[in-house]
Each structure stands twice: as C-alpha cells, then as structure tokens.
Amino acid sequence: MLRQAVVSDGGNAMRMESVAFRRSKRSGMAMSVIERYIRHDIPCAFSTCNRCGQNTSLRQRGIPMLDSASDILVADASVVSRFIELLEQHPNELTNIVFCQTVLDALDRRNRTRTIRNVRRITADPRRTSVVFANEVFADTILLEPRQPCESAVERDMRAVLQAANWYADHLAHEPVRIRVLTSDARSIYASGLNSNVEAWQLADYLAEFHPQLLEHFHTVREATGDMDITERTPLEYAQARLKAKAEGYAKHWSPSDIEDGLRTGALIKGKIRIVRASAADNKQPEGIVERGSGQPNIIVVGRAALNRACSGDTVVVRLLLAEREPSEQAEPNDSEDDAEEDPTEQIDAGDETEPMADQVRGTVVAIAERKWRPFVATLQPDEAGGNRHLAVPVDTAVPKIRIHYTDAAAIADRYFVVAIDGWPADSQYPQGHFIRALGPIGDLNAEIDTILVERQIAVSQAALAFSEASMREMPPSTWEPDAEEIGRRRDLRDRLVFSIDPRGSQDIDDAVSVRRLAGGRVELGVHIADVTQFIAPGSATDIEAQARGTTVYLADRRFNMIPEILSEHVCSLRSNRDRYAVSVVWTMDPACNVEQVWFGRTVIRSALEMCYEQAQALLDGERHVDGVGRLEETLRPSLVELTQIMRVLRERRRQNGALELASIEIKFEFDRATGEITELRPKRSLEIHRVIEEAMVFANQAVAKQIHQKTPAALLRRHRSPTSERFERLVRAARTRGFEIDCSSNVALADSLGRLAQAGDADLVFLAKSMATLAMQEADYFAGACDPDEHVHYGLALDHYTHFTSPIRRYADVIVHRQLLATLDGPVLSTQWVAAAAARLNERNRQAKLAQRESTELFQSRFVMQAEHLVADGVVAEVRTNGLIVYVPRFGLRGPVHLRDKSGQITVPLSALSGNPGDADRPISGCSGFAAEHDKLTIQLPLNVPVFHLGAPRLEVAVFDHVRVLLRVLETRRRRPVVYLTLLSRAADSKAYRSSLPSLDKRFRISAANAKRKEDNGTEAGSSHAVMCSSGGSAAGAAKGGACYGVLEKFAQLSLLEAASDVQGV
C-alpha cells in the first residue's frame, strides 16, 4: 500500500513523503518512508534567462548552460537508454539537450550507471550546452499525484518528461526557441497534452529532417541495441530477468559494506589497475598491476579469476594474498571454442621483463569501484557456428575480447569498427557489448588514423575535428591588421632585432627571441610569445573548443590544431615582416649573465626573419651565403652568437644543479607527393641551435612560473617528481656490464654518471642508457600550485618552479598561464578549484596526444618496412626478455622484439644469427638448449652439429648494449595493425656471435684449417672454406651457398665432435 503527502517546510522547499507498507513472513508488516524535498528555486539553465535567480550563479561558476540560439531538445528514457552513444559521439550536431531527472532515476532503477556517466560527460562538456533538469524536485514540474489508473511506471515517466517540456515552453515563451521532445517509443502518449510551442519527434524523423548525415549511424546503433531500451520492460521485469542469470565463472564482487570495512582495517587496497596482458592465448596468465606509489610495492594480479572482470584503467579494490598462495588455485573461466583461433600477433610478443618481482606483492580483485570503459576500436572474430554472436577483438591488447550481437558480419569482416562495453556478467568469459559504427578497411591509411584518434579519445573521426561554426564566427578576417589603439596600450618593441627559429616549413610560429648589447657590457634578452589570449576570450566558443582539445595533435603526416588555422598560422603566428601582438619576457643581465631585472607584459613586435634550425646553425657555424637569409646574414649572426653564448652559460648552471639531458627521438618522414609512399625515414638531427632555443624557452618558462607562483594563489605549474632508486636497477646493472657505475641518489649524481658514460664514445650506448633513465622516471604533470612547495620541483630540469608559457598556439596550458601572468599585472584571478580541474584534464589530454603521436610513428615505420625487401640494419640490445631481446635500431629510430623462443617454449634461434645471411632468417637451428635469460644477458646452448663452423659446444650469448645486425620485417594480420619485428643476423664485428667451450684448441684448429685450405686444389671449394672461416667471426654472408660448402661444414662438424670428446677426457 502506498500513501503520499506533501508537507511545507517553509522558505523555498516542501517535503513530500511516500509511505509504503509491505507484509513479509519474517517481520510481518513493515513501513518504509521516502522523503523528497520540493523546491521552487530550480533554475532553467537557459543562458539568457534572467527570471531564474540561480542562473547568475551558474554563469559565474562557468557551468555549461543551454544556448539561446538553438532549439531545446528534451530526450526521454527510450532515447537516452538506447541511443546514448549516438548522442555522445556528435558534439557539434546534437546539442542543447535537457536530460530530465525522471530519465536518470529510471536508468538508476535498472543499474544503468554507465549510461548515467555518459549523460554526465555530455552535460560537463561546454561544447554540448546540455543540462540535467531536476524536474522531480521542482514544484512547477513534479507529478504530485501517484500513477493514474492502469498507468505503468514507464508511462508515468513519459508524462513527467512531457510536463517538464511544457514548463520550458511556458517559461521561455518570450524567447525565440522551440522545445522538441525526442522519443523512440511508439506509444502515443505525447500526441496530446503538448504545449503549442512543444513538438514531439521520433528520433529517426528528427535526424532525417535536421541531421541526415547522422542517419547511417542511427540505423547502426538501433540495430545493435535492440535490447537496451529500458521502456520496454518495467523495473520489476528487469529485476526478475537479472535474478535468472547464473552467477557461475567469476567470483561475486564484495558488497559496499564489506569493502568499507576492509579498507578501514587495511585488509583491502583501492587503486587504479593497469592491464599488461589481456589475453591468455600464449599460455601465460593475463596480468594487471595496481600501482600504490609513496614507496609502497606494486600489487600484481595474475590470472582471469584474480582479475575478476577488471579492465585497464578501472579503479579496483584488491585483497592481498599470502606469499605462499598462488592465484591460479581458482578455476579460470573458460570458453574454449572462443580461443581456438590464434592471434598471429602473439607469435611476436616481446615476452616479459626478466626483472625479479621482489618489489611487488600478489593480490586479487574483489570489487570494481569505478569503471573506465570507453569506446574501443576492434576487428571481428566471427561466430564459428554461423550465428550472430561474435567476438570483437580490440586493437588495444590490454582490452579483452568483447561479445557483440551483429547480424551482417560480412559487412565488417575486414574493417575496423567501434564497440562499447555494456556489462560483464559473472557467468561470461568476456564482457558484453554492442557495435557502434564502422571506421574503414583494415590497412587503409585514413581508417588507421581514425583508429588512433578513437583509441586515444581525441575524436570520433578526423572529420569531427573540424572547428564549429560558432568558433569560426569568432575569427578575425583574413585581412586582419593590428589596431592602432591596441598598439598604444602595449610596449612597442618593433625597433628590436627579433627573429624566430623553428622546424623547416613551420607555419604556427609561437615564439621569437631578441638579444642586444647595452652599456657596460650588460645584455637585454627577450623571449616573445604569440598573444593568443588577445583573440580568444574566456568562455567563448573557441576557448571552449581549445580547452576540450587541450593540445595540438601531431601525427607523422598531419596535425590537428587546437585553435583554428586563421589564428594558428596567420593572425597569431609571429611571421616575419609583419606586426604581431606578443606577450614578452625581457631580462636585463650583467656581463656574467646574472639577471638584474625582469619585465613581463604585452608587446607588439616585428620579426626580421623566420629561420629554420638548419639555417640558424649554418649562421652559427660561420658559413657564408646561407640560403634564404640574404642581406640579413651579417646582421643576424652577431645576435645569434650572443644568444648562444648566454644559453651555454645558463645551461651549464642548470647542469651543475643536476639538470638531466635525457634521451628522446623524433622521427622525420618524407613522402612522395604523387604516390604517398614513404621515401625516407630518419631520426631528427641534433644541432646545438636546438639546445639554444630550448634553453631560452626553459628560461622564460621558469621566470613566468616564479611570477605567477608569487602573485597567484593557484598557479598552473608543471612538476617532475623525483624517482625512487629501485626504478634505476636495470640501468645500473646494464652499465656495470660495460664497466660503468651509475649513481642515482640524486639528479646531480645521475647527471654526472651519465656524463661519464658519454665519454665512452659509443653514441648508441649513451642513447640507450639515457632512454633507460627516462623510462625509470615518472611523467611530468601539471598541477595547481597551492600544494606543498616540496611538490613544485622539476627533477629533470633541476628547477624549483616551472610551467609552460611558450606555446599557446598548440597547448591550452600555456593559454591558462598567459591569463594568469597577465592577471598578476592587472586582471581577474582564476579559482584554485578550476585550475586543479583544468590541470587534471590537460594531463590526460597531453598524455593521449603523445600516445597518438607515438602510435602514428609506429604505423608509418611499419609501412616503410613493408615497402622494402630484406631491410637490414645495425642495432643495439636494449633489453633481455623471457623469450628473446628488445633491440633498438638507431637508423630508423625504432625498437622491436627479436624472438628466440616461441609461445610453447621451443627455442627458435635462426641460422642467420650465426651465418649473417638474411636468407637463413626463417631456418631455425634444431637442437638448441639451455635458454637462460638473465636481467642483462641471454645465453643459449647451440647443438654440436650446427651447419656453421664452430669449435666444441658453442653458445649464443648476447648482452644488453651489445651491437647486433638485424633483419626488419612486418607481421600483417587480420586482427590488428601491422607490427615491425626483428630477426637476429649476427653480432657486430667487434665481438663473436657465439663463444666456443674449447678456447685452448681454438688456435691449433685454426692453423690446421688454414693448412688444409692451402692444400686445397679446387678453387670453388677453397672459396667456400674461406667464407665459412669468415662466418666464425660473424661476418660471412655466403655460408649456405653450394653443396661443396656444406661438405666442408660437415667435416668441420665431425672435427668439433672429436674435440669435444678430447675435452671430456681431459686432453
């Protein structure tokens, strides 16, 4: 029995009580009371409405509001529950949406928390101008009476949505907007009771009328989500269906109360999990790592049962296991028919690190605190039985396969497509999901780029990165010129010799420098940065889009700008011989390069010349008639030399304080314009002028960081936390193999150690050592500077305060810092809460952009290798893994696996590792044994009858930092993007490819072999003998040519058997 009553509490609120009486066998009659407060002050959140007093607060807090220039869409439960992916994937078309509290309550009653999170993401995105309307607690829209006779809960909710839409129409009657209710429900409840300014639209009809380009996506989603409409079942029917589901396979997640108790007592640990292997198809258990930080050991979770349906990025609750307990004691959920098809990429899996897990403890997941599911790009593993229940294989190997229902499998069999996870029942090996849309054919370049953008959560496609009409309306005309009145408000530096130095072909020039001598040997140094904030007002459409993008995304062959091209390449870009607005930092320095005074402010400058790095380096080197410089050559050279001398001093000071020169590599691709093929791939050449400009930018960033930290309560700063010494163990051990000691007790000690290593003269070894040091460190990140001052330090740069100020055209963090810097002079201050939220958002955006850039580079590296045949290059061993090596190839700037043991444990050393012949790359040596992978060395015992000359029982021995030659090839699959892998050809000439176990007989046998060679009358046989002897040194390419050659090899094999026997007898 249900009874409702409304009680006035005075003021702006009333209280509605719902009293229900239920009879149970255990406790007899029970009464439950639900109180809901009814308010009169719920705002409409319409941007230009002044009738609602709370709207002013929303504007001041920067909360997204409904756009007055667009009609309002009110989406009911049938649309939100089934088509949320469609609503979320089109931020430029589907905007100004009102999500009623009624709809969110209905989703909550059916445990659709993921859909609710999607709604929250839409309403938090300023581009969407969408809101949640609390109609169930608003006095003007709440349905006070209980359900009408014969009215279902679904119909009651539809009536509540209609009530909210009618209220908006009445409330905004003076505004030129229409209210459109969107539904996919066939019932006619919206046919009557509509206000004259309210329209009811079927979603399909609305899209056909206003957004026909979205119809294909709509039909795709509708086909894939037939069972997701919550209006088709009542909450009771939904609950009954869930009770029928079997809870077999995975363990049930713990209850919230048990979790709370465990966290309080320390029995449970909460943290974010990173899945390092999602598939167990290679006979290894899938693994996850929960990083705890603060010097505490990581928690490793091994096996599907222990992971208990956790996905990478989820926040999980973990129970620690006893040291002697193995997680594999639990039965692993298994759908054997789904693992029957092998993924070929597993064949080149790089294997595990050989590092011991002393700093890790084992655990098992007992609950998922927060899911981090997102749209995933996948390929199809069809239902072998010919049905419609297929497996989507994500391109991200850290994501498990996803069960989907799709009727036309042939249409997406060889295409990338996007899927979403809906849930993961305990009785299913795989999560359940649905198809969203197709991207394009596997191997097609644009489909590959779209895949990267979706996987990195940058955009749903390349087309979606076009700027909105609202943003383009804010742009200045292409004929823009500086305003005389604005110039009068700025410091005029057009009399200074200003110049810029950037990569060749750059159009988005956001920094320039100047330097001039003053009286008494003093120097004026200036760094001038494009004044982007002059053209992007806070809260404008362009600002909102730039904030959402966070950064310009640079891929190997294209880029996606953070701000429109009219700004980035024209109006804001510091082009030569044009007056431009800038924000400048100007120092006055004494002859010893000590700062006497620093000035910050808005300026107007006129760059004399846009130089590329190569031109500037040529000037610095004293070259004459540098191409493109012309008559400015002798004018620019003294300033460039002066700038370089100053930067050398500043850089040396930082180095003495512990600044690190860490390794990073930038790959440059050159393309044939006609065919689009890659004609050249090479690492970017390192020049001194690179370091000069870098130091100037670091100097400016440091100065601005100090200014905003001192004058702003929540400065946006950038920090680089100190790593722990345990992270450097691999580098320390590897360096010892070459006789070097690495002291990582501080950044000063580490910098000195790396400096001594650089004196060895092996550039590749030094690069790898610096790469290891880089990997051992934590990522630098943005933060609001109100935290503990000890947290401000930038470890790598050896600075107390640092920020990003010098690239506002391509980084939104710099836009914020510009605003904060100008606010210290005269302007409003940003709140700490807003800056902290922005920092977290920008950290994620920057990380995803870097990953996209790396994946794009790997994509084009693989395409370059595919174009070539028998691509052979020199490499350096970077790591030893449990099934082979990781080798760095400096010529092409890539790292790849060298596989020496397959997934079944069989040793697969190619004959090419001894012969050096690429033709032997696919001929494994049978009979190998003794595979021993240590942290810095790999040893394999070779058989006595190996068909290459050797002495005694040889062994293949390769250590970290060894130089090797490798064959580069690409593995193409139907599942994932092509992957570059390497095959060992030989060791470098300065060290043997293998070592004999009979060194005492080595010289004697070589003399005997030489005498036999001199007595040989057959020229061909003699030539073959010569080739074999060279192969013992690892340099022969013709060891496998001709039958006569193998005859000689057989004789050598027999001789080595005799020598091995002599060794056993003690001869």
From TrEMBL:
Location in the cell: Cytoplasm; Nucleus
Region (Disordered) location: 323-357
Nucleus as UniProt keyword: yes
EC number(s) per entry: 3.1.13.1
Source species, domain of life: Eukaryota
Keyword Nuclease among UniProt keywords: yes
Biased composition (Acidic residues): 332-356
Major enzyme class: hydrolase
Entry GO CC: cytoplasm; nuclear exosome (RNase complex)
Pfam families xref list: OB_Dis3, RNB, Rrp44_CSD1
InterPro entries: Dis3_CSD2, NA-bd_OB-fold, RNase_II/R, RNase_II/R_CS, RNR_Ribonuclease, Rrp44_CSD1
Keywords assigned: Cytoplasm, Exonuclease, Exosome, Hydrolase, Magnesium, Nuclease, Nucleus, RNA-binding, rRNA processing
Principal location class: cytoplasm
Residue ranges of domain RNB in the record: 490-827
Any single GO BP term: rRNA processing
MF-aspect GO terms: exoribonuclease II activity; RNA binding
Catalysed reactions, semicolon-separated: Exonucleolytic cleavage in the 3'- to 5'-direction to yield nucleoside 5'-phosphates
Required cofactor(s): Mg(2+)
Similarity comment text for this entry: Belongs to the RNR ribonuclease family.
Protein name per UniProt: DIS3-like exonuclease 1
UniProt source species: Coemansia spiralis
